[in-house]
Specification:
By secondary structure, the chain is α/β, with parallel strands linked by helices. The protein is about 40% helix and about 15% strand. Helix 3 packs parallel to helix 4. The chain is globular, with a radius of gyration of 21 Å. The relative contact order is 0.17.
Length: about 375
């Protein structure tokens, strides 16, 4: 099998799975308990926190461990919400775990503004400049689009905030950039950054939220007061430490260079067919957006799965819903959206595997196309 739906999830490192088993079956102590074995576990969790702060390139702030990106995004948005005549800004390109929280804010009566997307998939910075004011409470932006791979300029957004809305908070959904792009938040003044372990070869059901200043957030989950009271519930120790293992194993710069080669080779193979259109968003090499003339994307996806090539049609969190609001907002036509596939890579793939997959995609596409024409 050649797996090319890594934006949906990635294969867990086997050594990470072994580590998870160790802390689930042997060193299984509750980190909140009072005996020495538990204190040792708590130190392991704190070491992982420091590892995450290091890869983010920050010296201040903390990391709150959560059950994944959806919880982290909810905590950042709902936890930073305040009563009063505040305004909230969200990207139309947001992942459903952000988009639907914003819709809930609207339902609750808050003023929510939606940023449209440019042709290159990035948010419209001109629109953002017009929306920012002293009432802005939160700006929520995806670092890398899970649909297109487009990279938003969070440094530019933070600079605009500093001038036009000095008291506004910035939340960045970093799910598709954490451990994939080389960046540092030290000089980019953002307040919240979301990540999820299963997007970079860690386990499912664990993630975290970087918080620059804990005074800007309140708990939305109440209970025993774990994670300094900001996320109650016994920590997923095995999951957190397996996530830490994945972070330690990943070589961001080396992986980026290799995945860029994989992306380029796939583009070459697909673009050689004049009926296959690669969308050049000039973003993250981990995600490639493509549409195929006269063939339904889901039909092609299923046919490819039968040939052991796994690709996606877009966000796995909204794949059962009709349409694609991200591509629609960029300006794609309905037939193009219907014919769209998302190909996403990981650094363990070889060039030979990608070349083989590319040739299979072209062959299966043309077989289907001939039948429908």
């Amino acid at each position: 099998m050649i797996y090319l739906d890594n934006a949906a999830t990635t294969k867990m490192f086997e050594e990470g799975a072994d580590l998870y088993k160790q802390y689930a079956c042997h060193s299984f102590f509750n980190p909140s308990a009072g005996y020495s074995q538990s204190s040792s576990i708590k130190k392991e969790l704190d070491n992982t926190r420091q590892k995450i702060l290091s890869i983010l390139g920050v010296r201040e702030g903390t990391v709150i461990f959560t059950g994944g990106a959806t919880e982290s995004n909810n905590l950042a948005i709902m936890g930073s919400k305040r009563n009063g005549k505040y305004e909230y800004i969200f990207s139309v390109g947001s992942h459903p775990s952000v988009y639907n929280v914003a819709k809930e804010l609207e339902r609750l009566g808050h003023v929510v503004h939606w940023l449209n997307l440019r042709d290159d998939g990035q948010v419209n910075y001109v629109e953002l400049e017009k929306l920012l004011n002293d009432k802005t409470r939160l700006i929520s932006i995806e670092h890398v689009s899970n649909e297109t791979g487009a990279i938003n300029d969070i440094k530019r957004i933070a600079s605009m905030r500093d001038v036009l809305a000095k008291n506004a908070l910035i939340h960045v959904d970093g799910v598709q950039s954490f451990c994939k792009l080389n960046f540092s938040l030290e000089k980019i003044k953002i307040d919240f950054y979301t990540f999820s372990a299963h997007k970079f070869h860690g386990p499912k059901g664990v993630g975290g939220l970087y918080v620059k200043n804990l005074n800007t957030i309140k708990s939305i989950v109440f209970g025993g007061g774990q994670e300094d009271g900001y996320r109650s519930g016994t920590e997923n120790v095995g999951g957190i430490l397996a996530m830490g293992y994945a972070i330690g194993k990943i070589e961001v710069l080396r992986n980026f260079e290799h995945v860029s080669l994989l992306n380029s080779r796939m583009k070459e193979i697909l673009s050689a067919d004049s009926h296959i259109h690669v969308n050049n968003f000039e973003g993250s090499p981990y995600i490639l957006s493509v549409w195929f003339e006269n063939v339904n994307g889901e039909t092609l996806m299923r046919a490819l799965a039968d040939e052991e090539v796994i690709v996606g049609t877009g966000s796995a969190c909204s794949s059962k819903k009709a349409g694609n609001r991200v591509l629609e907002n960029i300006g794609f036509k309905k037939d193009q959206i219907k014919s769209h596939l998302r190909i996403s890579f990981n650094a363990q793939l070889t060039v030979e595997e990608v070349e083989k997959a590319g040739k299979i995609i072209v062959e299966i596409y043309n077989n289907i196309r001939e039948r429908v024409l």
